[in-house]
Specification:
By secondary structure, the chain is α/β, with parallel strands linked by helices. The protein has one domain: TIM Barrel (Alpha-Beta Barrel), CATH 3.20.20.140. It is 33% helix and 18% strand. The chain is built from twelve helices and 13 strands. The strands form three sheets. It has an eight-stranded parallel beta sheet. A three-stranded antiparallel beta sheet has the order 1-10-13, covered by helices on one side. The longest helix is centred in the middle third of the chain and has 16 residues. The radius of gyration is 19 Å and the shape is globular.
């Protein structure tokens, strides 16, 4: 039985850090285990241009623990008003590597998102020209579409057309949750997906059976067990099309436990430990380093990290909460003992 595991230091290719005082909590958790992270731009004031992205990056660096070499990689928030010039300007910065497509109303702070994806064709063309990646929250927002079907409907209605019309545009289908998403990624060139710990570990029973579990509520929502098994198979397959992206998305505990609770799971406190549990259970620990440390930078055309981290088989349990500005933050799977720990 493996009791110690050394990996090239991983990266998180999908992360929410929030802003302001929240950074004093969120940045340290990610910097402890990840060398780089793709930082999502969906702040209350969305990051819609290079100047805003670089200012946000500096705020993150200001909150990074002393001595840490953590590198935030920035993204632009696409809107109906995004111009080709915004893309060109962003592409001139090595710290801005992608732009994020949120359908308006799809998730947290997405009210400024895109209402007509077809009108973004000039923006996609400019991204393809300059090598800026397109990151997609792949869900339709039509209320007539069942919430459990919104990912595969988006793929059929929008993503197939984007893939066809812009063959050299690198696309990441973020936080894939369905068999259809896995099949789309496998079938298409220049296409990859991030997979989250919550979607690999849990299915929709973990959200609804025996009572509503607000800290397991995220978007895209947890799906059937058949979909979870498809994600597990993809993650542990050794395919370079699938890599680590936590989608760690902190909300204060009272916002999660409200009558209309916020979507998002805070997993950054134990992200690599959670992924290690997944791979161990599947007897595929030898595939973890590729998934967590190699395939993401390869797809983004970035160098692999040189430093290492070591995990040991040592049980621990997260506290009931962490401080989160003036509020508290409940960690994902707090009620269950974790099997692996990062060696200091």
């Amino acid at each position: 039985m493996t009791t110690q595991l050394t990996l090239t230091k991983p990266d998180d290719w999908h992360l929410h850090l929030r802003d302001g005082d929240a950074l004093n909590t969120t940045v340290a958790f990610t910097a402890k285990q990840f060398q780089r992270a793709i930082v999502m731009p969906n702040l209350p004031q969305p990051i819609v241009n290079a100047d805003l992205a670089m200012a946000y990056r500096q705020r993150i660096l200001n909150a990074t623990p002393k001595g840490s070499l953590f590198q935030p990689l920035m993204t632009l928030y696409l809107t109906d008003n995004t111009r080709a010039e915004d893309i060109k300007q962003a592409s001139e910065s090595k710290e801005i590597v992608a732009a994020k497509l949120y359908p308006a109303g799809a998730t947290t702070n997405s009210s400024n998102g895109v209402t007509d994806i077809d009108k973004l064709a000039p923006v996609f063309a400019e991204m393809q020209k300059h090598g800026l990646l397109l990151l997609v929250h792949a869900e339709v927002t039509d209320p007539s579409v069942d919430i459990f079907d919104r990912e595969h409907v988006f793929i059929d209605k929008h993503l197939n057309a984007i893939r066809r019309d812009f063959p050299e545009l690198k696309i990441v289908l973020e936080h894939a949750t369905t068999e259809q998403a896995i099949q789309f990624v496998e079938a298409n060139h220049n296409t990859a997906a991030t997979l989250t710990p919550q979607h690999l570990l849990f299915n929709r029973n973990d959200l609804l059976a025996g009572g509503i579990r607000p800290h397991n509520y995220c978007l895209p929502i947890l799906k059937r067990e058949t979909h979870r098994l498809a994600l597990i198979k993809a993650a542990t397959s050794g395919s370079p099309k699938f890599f680590l992206g936590t989608d760690s998305a902190p909300h204060s505990s009272h916002a999660k436990e409200a009558s209309c609770g916020c979507a998002g799971c805070f997993t950054a406190h134990a992200a690599i430990e959670l992924y290690t549990e997944v791979f161990e259970k599947e007897n595929e620990l030898d595939k973890l380093e590729g998934f967590s440390s190699f395939y993401g930078p390869d797809f983004y055309r970035l160098p692999r990290n040189k430093s290492k981290i070591t995990l040991v088989k040592e049980a621990w349990q997260a506290p009931l909460s962490y401080s989160f500005g003036e509020q508290t933050l409940t960690p994902f799977r707090q009620e269950t003992t974790l099997s692996w720990s990062i060696r200091p």
